[in-house]
Specification:
The complex is a heterodimer. Chain A has no helices and 11 strands. Chain A is mostly beta strands. In chain A, strands 2, 4, 5, 6, 9, 10 and 11 form a 7-stranded mixed beta sheet that branches. Chain A has a 4-stranded antiparallel beta sheet with strand order 1-3-8-7, with no helix packed on it. In chain A, 37% of the residues are buried. The model of chain A has no long low-confidence stretch (mean pLDDT 91). By secondary structure, chain B is an all-beta fold. Chain B has no helices and 10 strands. Chain B has strands spanning 9-13, 18-23, 32-38, 45-50, 55-56, 61-64, 70-75, 84-94, 97-102, 106-111. Classes of the chains: A mainly beta, B mainly beta. The A-B interface holds A 4, 6, 31-32, 34, 43-44, 46, 49, 51, 91, 93, 95, 97-101, 103-109, 111 and B 30-32, 34, 36, 38, 41-46, 49, 51, 85, 87, 89, 91-93, 96-100, 102, 104-105.
Chain lengths: 115, 112
């Protein structure tokens, strides 16, 4: 079945640095990618929706200049957390979808720790 | 856009059926109801989906009301491994792209 690969699974970075998370669809064309953030014991929260070749649409309260999303191809989307701070420490997950109502496929998430 | 609401948490005895409800009263005609579950620190796992007919697969059954304003996910014989957060999601197409509405999830605790 369709697989979404998310990398890295864990990353520790120093405050002020930037971190890039990759999300790849391995055997299907992902016209839409979704990025989520999840704090401990809380639900998934949608951060942004990215359609291939277009600018991402951010949810209210999510800073687009801090969380840079690129979706330049049908198989790759990246989320860059710029100038990371300890409060950005969280579990980040991507999901990929096509142009129909077929199931979303989720990555296994990235645990970001900012020290 | 459809909005989904779910109870925050539920308990179920091992071996019994777990019935997880979801309200999506503003769902539109071309939007599907999907269910996923998330076990701690992993990506959500697909369970089942439907448009208006009831569906069954090897994992679960999905009952959608006739007016499509709510649905129920049924795990027929819950096991301890079914302890997870269950998300009801509405997926539709807007402008040629998928549009997703997430519920807040129900934390299901299966009790021995």
């Amino acid at each position: 079945g369709a697989v979404v690969s998310q990398h890295p699974s864990r990353v520790i970075c120093k405050s002020g640095t930037s971190v890039k998370i990759e999300c790849r669809s391995l055997d299907f064309q992902a016209t839409t990618m979704f990025w989520y953030r999840q704090f401990p014991k809380q639900s998934l929260m949608l951060m942004a929706t990215s359609n291939e070749g277009s600018k991402a649409t951010y949810e209210q309260g999510v800073e687009k200049d801090k969380f840079l999303i690129n979706h330049a191809s049908l198989t790759l989307s990246t989320l860059t957390v710029t100038s990371a701070h300890p409060e950005d420490s969280s579990f980040y997950i991507c999901s990929a979808g096509g142009q129909d109502n077929s199931p979303l496929h989720f990555g296994n998430g990235t645990r970001l720790t900012v020290t | 856009d459809a909005k989904t609401t779910q109870p925050t948490s539920m308990d179920c005895a091992e071996g019994r059926a777990a019935n997880l409800p979801c309200n999506h009263s503003t769902i539109s005609g071309n939007e599907y109801v999907y269910w996923y579950r998330q076990i701690h620190s992993q990506g959500p796992q697909y369970i089942i989906h439907g448009l208006k007919n009831n569906e069954t697969n090897e994992m679960a059954s999905l009952i959608i009301t006739e007016d499509r304003k709510s649905s129920t996910l049924i795990l027929p014989h819950a096991t301890l491994r079914d302890t997870a957060v269950y998300y009801c999601i509405v997926i539709g197409i807007s402008g040629g792209y998928q549009k997703v509405t997430f519920g807040t999830g129900t934390k299901l605790q299966v009790i021995p």
